[in-house]
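Support request, priority: normal
Reporter: lab tech (M.K.)
Component: structure prediction queue

Hi team, I submitted a job for Pyridoxamine 5'-phosphate oxidase from Amycolatopsis halotolerans yesterday, and the status page still shows it as pending. I've pasted the exact input below so you can check whether something in the sequence is tripping the parser. The sequence length should be 141 residues. Please let me know if I need to resubmit or if it's stuck on your end.
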Amino acid sequence: MDDVELTHRECVRLLRSPERGRRGIVAIDGRTPVPRVCLLLDAGDVLIPTGPDSGLVRVAAMRPVSLEFTDLDKDGRPRWTVRGIGLARPMTGLDVPRPVPHSTVLAATPDAFRNGVRVAVARYRGNRPAGGVAIPAPREG
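Reply from support: The job had stalled in the queue. We restarted it manually and it finished. Here are the results:
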C-alpha cells in the first residue's frame, strides 16, 4: 500500500491528539539522534523539558533541531510518522503552558520544566499508510 503525505497542519493535529506529551527522536545540529520526552504546543512548537539537567540547553541553544515522532498501533506497526525541523532556544517560564496539559509521558518526570528548550518548528511533514488513521478535527477555542 502507498503512503499518504501529510500536510503541516495535519501533522500538528496528529501530534496534539490524544495528548500533547509524546516521546520523540531529537537530533541537534546534526548530532546523533536521541529519544526525548516532548510537549507539543498549540501552533506546533515543541518544548523539550530536561528537569534539573541543563546540558541540553547549552548544546541546543540557537541551533537547528530535527524531530521525529512515530505513532504505533497495538501490534507495533506505524500508524503515522511526522518529521519536523526548527530552531532551538532556551525555554523560559513563559513558554510553559499553565496549567501543564495532562500527559502520561511527562508525569514520570518530576520538576520537568525547570530547564529545557523550545523548538520553534519551521515545518512538519509526515506520512501514514493509505486507509490509515483519521486526522483529528481542529480544536475549538
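The chain has a mean pLDDT of 88. Helices lie at 8-15, 55-60. Let us know if anything else looks off. Ticket resolved.
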